[in-house]
Amino acid sequence: MGELLRSVKMSLLRFLVPDEASHETIFELGKLGIVNFRDLNSNLSAFQRPFIEEARRLDDLEKILVFFESQLDFVAWGDIPQDRLLTKEEEKEIILEDLDNLEGNFENLQTNLRDLLRNETNLLIQYYDLNLRVLVLEKVEKLLAMEKIQNLASSRNNTILSQIDNKNLTKNDSEDDINEIPLLEIQSGSQSEMGFESDNTENQKGLQFVCGTIPRERVATLERILWRATLGNIYLKTVDLDHRIKNPRNNTYERRCVFIIFFQGIKTREKILRVCTLMSGNLHQIPEKKKDRIKLSEESKTQIQDLKEIIESGKKHKIEAIIGLKIRFPVWYERIHKEKSIYNILNLFKDDETKKVLIAEGWAPENSITEIRECIEKATDISGSTLPTIIDVIERIPEDYIPPTYFPVNNFQKGFQDMVDSYGIANYGEINPAPFSIITFPFLFAVMFGDVGHGLLLTSFAIWVLFVSKKLEKISKVNEIVKVLYDGRYIILLMGIFSIYTGLIYNEFFSLSMNLFGTCWEPRNNSLVLDLKYHGCTYPIGIDPSWWGATTELLYSDSLKMKLSVLFGVTQMLFGIILSLFNHIHFKKWLNILFEFLPQVILLSSFFGYMNILIIDKWVTDWSTRENQTGGVHLITTLIKMALSPMGVSAEDEIYQNQNGVQFFLLIVFALCIPWMLLPKPFILRHRAKQKIKRGYKLENSSNTSDSSDSNFNHVPVYTQPFEFSEVMINQLIHTIEFVLGSISNTASYLRLWALSLAHSQLSKVFWEMIFITCAKIKIGGSLAIVFGFCAWACLTIGVLLIMECLSAFLHALRLHWVEFNTKFYISDKSKKFEPFTFKYIKNEIKNFRK
User: In the 8-state DSSP scheme, what is residue 610?
Assistant: First the structure.
């Protein structure tokens, strides 16, 4: 608990590492994972670091690994025979393999795999084009009236286009319409193939056609553009392919149409070809004669069968190559990433003048120094270095060296610590709010969400998340929402448990009251007026069930929850100020105790603490025994009069004797605390600064500061920073105003507990009465109406109350901790998180990859 309350004590270590033992030393420290190295080369650019060449080389190998990883999903682990998996000896050989040999193997494997992929892509493109050709031949056969076209006399060529235009055949007509068109004949002497490659002069005078395929969604655009480009001198016919086809050029499935375009003239042909190319059309040469088309179709099908065999053979070679990569990839990944992280750390080290020893500095927990020394000795033995690695603990740490903050947490504490770290990392030695948030956060959430039924559902959900946490851990790597649920599973569990507790206090179960222990009220003479059964009767826990359904139900619960909100808020703020006292004592800031802590506690207690005392006093006082005060007093009126007229409390409104004098004294104390916080501290600091200069300290400037990494840590400081009184005074003024105004606004901010609790209760009640009860009263439909009403009520309860309201209460509770609580003691202005050099994350990634 002590290490969670304050950061683990850190020591600054200096390492003198022989060059020949540097790699093994960092490797062993990475396995240990408890040293956070400092950058001693911060004045150098990335290209001036001592091991930049090795780091670049490993970056290139990492890029090759990324390429390998992109291909590994083609083969599943279950498809790999057990005898192909690597043994421990083979894995060890890869780990110990020379980096030069590994680099050469990577380049050869990359080249071979890229060649296989390139050949496979080319073959698939050929296969795709041949399939399209066969499909085009099949569809075009239905579109062409080739026999009639060949029997047409050349004299009728001049009337063709006009006749086509008169029949409006640019639309997608039926196949029967084509047979009704006056047929056109190509010059009888032409024996060449018709298509977009025909250059015969006489063919250019006759009717020509172009055919191919185009994406179905672009057919209308193609038709419109061609019509405008050729002034309507074309005939376009299309037909859809029966199924989607995968295009290997972009690895997408497409819906394509076969089209055929009839036209005249070489210029028209050029326009058509250009437009079809721009519209992602695939053009195909189709012979004029039917027997030639049949022959081409048969040849294409033969080529398709040959390509299938070649593609299958290529896939087998690719699978063999990928299996060889996959069984070695985890070992390669671990080796490359460890080497890269080692050289990145070595780039933080500084060379000494002899270039034989590397100088390093790092932070480590005090209790782990012995373990680090043993690790260093092991690395020296493995490397065979004749020079030992020297470790020194720097006793006198320079002021500009900020130790990192480290809180060792378990799975239960991690969610709360992450929540606090989102606000800011604690300064080294500063009190950590996380231990207190374990209780206060779910409690404040439950104050707003209190309901036994809703709490049970939330707790059940949290227990389910705990049972499937191992599965969720894998999914959380790629899904952000699942990661939030996994990290906050224990927070959700406590939120549910505390909601059950506050639901018992509120006596609410899905907005219904629970008569668990019997009521203390009974009807007066069989009327609707209730009296206490006996004097002093109290309900064992929470609110008496008789209050629910009474005419004063809302007024009673409203008053109770509002007062509870103020009590909890002022108590938590006072607790935060008390925690600041322990911070001041730890950092030996005695001025802050005298001129910040004391006036802040007195100021907050003199008004808001007094208000809490009045609330409790009103609850415990039997007002029925008071003359002229049987209904109690209004505390809001009392507090307003205290501020505006402290001596104006009348006898009817007096709660206790000498109330006027006490309230006047508290107001005087409240007013005196403001200059107490504002004035003394800046003047005392100015006096101390003058005394330092008199004792011989010099003002610090940029010309006499030296590099911290080369400075002697045991020297006596002779420099002091210049003191700016105006800056200190303005800063103190801002803090004083912020606290005085914040004490009012923060107290009012805690009223959100009352508002959200009331809204949650009333909304739950509305859902029950207006939906379920209303449906249950419907006579038509009977049980069907009840089932419908229950389903609608359950959906709204889960969607609105358990999701939206839960998220709203969570955010409000988080805001109260970050703004109202943490600001009282949690500075977090000079902090740095402890980030040790470790191989742990690499091992976790390897485990996930193997799974």
Answer: H
